[in-house]
Amino acid sequence: MTRLRMAVIGVGHLGQHHARILAGLPDVELVGVVDANPMQARTIAGRLNTQAFDSHESLLDEVDAVSVVTPTIYHHAVASEFLDHGVPVLVEKPICRTVAEANDLIARAAKNGVPLQVGHIERFNPAFEELAKRPIRPKFVEAERHGPFTGRSVDIGAVLDLMIHDLDLLLSLVRSPVKHVAAVGAPVFGGHEDMVNARLEFENGCVAHVTASRISARPKRRLRVWAPEGYAGIDFVNRRLTLVQQSDEVRHHGLRLDQMDSATKARLKDDLFTRYLQVLNLDGDRKGDQLTAELKHFVDCVRTGRQPRVTGEDGRNALELAERILLALREHKWEGDTAGLIGPTEVPMPAGHLFSPPMPMPRSEAA
Ligand code: NAD
Asked: How many angstroms does the Cα of residue 11 sit away from the middle of ligand 1?
């Protein structure tokens, strides 16, 4: 089999891992890496025994597929040139800055008949893969995505940086348009919202509460789903899926408390998660990583012409919902009326300290 000639455009924090993984795939030849920072491109190329390029234009005729991992503001400009050259593109999330840009990329991919995949990596989390293949019709969902502040992606806020992962997962699970959006969000370090909560109502009656924060001490990425079929809980960090369903006895007859003798009633608490509710814990494969799975899937789609699991349309739909949440944030009235402060950048001033601030450490001790 001839090796697929690939390149990575943007080899910063995440792109260098795209390059490392692609360089290690037996059916891929990493022909080069590109970065706006030539030093960075040379460092990564040297490490992976490939060539460094200063601009993506030099690679347009040299590759069979590319991974675009530049900051989001450049996704459209870079990806559109490759698509116009008939080169399949994997573009990191969020697909673009705006829905109009995303629609343009989708149209270019369709016109040139090439795959366009978006890097919504949680779709490749084994716990989510396990859930996605089951017949669940979510009716109430809680999604939480918390992480520490990294100082990266500060050109965007927590909605486009973090929450967009859960928006894509929700849309792929619920499969219904969103009817109503309410949201509140606040910056902690200025600029954009660092934490946000949204309530989404879908046309099929599902309600979702989605929270994202990038100022949390510990990472937490969880999804909890209530459905007529049962409950599903995902811990994305530990790749664990917990499923709970009613036993057939309860499914058919309910919990007949009035017909229970006192001994059965006394054991109710102990029997709850065995006799009445059945529990299955599935631990996803911890050896293989999601980025490798995502890149292998892209390579496979390029080779076979199969539709990617996360299409340009999926990326656009998640972005469109993110834009509606951002709009709702901008309309939030902190004092309940239009006379007061509005939106995520005009948060009320603190009224005082919650506790006495600790004494600053003398410089000598701090060092
Ligand atoms: P980064 O700033 O660490 O890296 C971006 C790199 O691109 C830098 O080295 C920069 O010099 C280079 N660059 C800038 N403009 C360029 C251009 N026009 N051509 C070539 N190189 C260019 O950012 P990052 O954290 O690696 O994020 C990159 C992208 O990946 C963003 O879109 C981000 O949203 C996305 N991302 C996705 C995930 C995920 O979970 N899927 C996680 C992190 C980042």
From this structure: 7
| Fold held by 123-283 | Dihydrodipicolinate Reductase; domain 2 (3.30.360)
Cβ of 74 closer than 6 Å to ligand 1, yes or no, is yes
Average pLDDT over residues 305-323: 97
Burial class (CB within 10 angstroms; exposed 0-12, middle 13-18, buried 19+) of 219: exposed
Q: Please say whether the beta carbons of 227 and 139 come within 8 A.
A: yes
Ramachandran angles phi, psi of 63, nearest 5°: -125, 160
Where are the chain's structural domains? 4-121+294-322, 123-283
Residue 83 token pair: 């698509």
Going from the Cα of 111 to the center of ligand 1, the distance in angstroms, rounded, reads 27
Condensed to tens digits (0 to 9), the pLDDT of residues 219-246 reads 999 999 999 999 999 999 999 999 999 9
Tell which one of 153, 163, 236, 319 to mutate to probe ligand 1, the residue whose CB is within 8 A of the most ligand atoms: 153
Residue 36 Cβ inside 6 Å of ligand 1? The answer reads: yes
Kindly report the pTM of this predicted structure.
Answer: 0.93
Q: How confident is the model at residue 170 (pLDDT cuts 50, 70, 90)?
A: very high
Q: Are 314 and 119 in contact (CB under 8 A)?
A: no
The pLDDT of residue 366 is 53
Domain boundaries 4-121+294-322, corresponding CATH code: 3.40.50.720
Read off the pLDDT of residues 98-139 as tens digits, 9 standing for 90 and up. Answer: 999 999 999 999 999 999 999 999 999 999 999 999 999 999
Residue nearest to atom 43 of ligand 1 (CA): 14
Instruction: Give me ligand 1 centre to Cα 129, in Å.
Output: 26
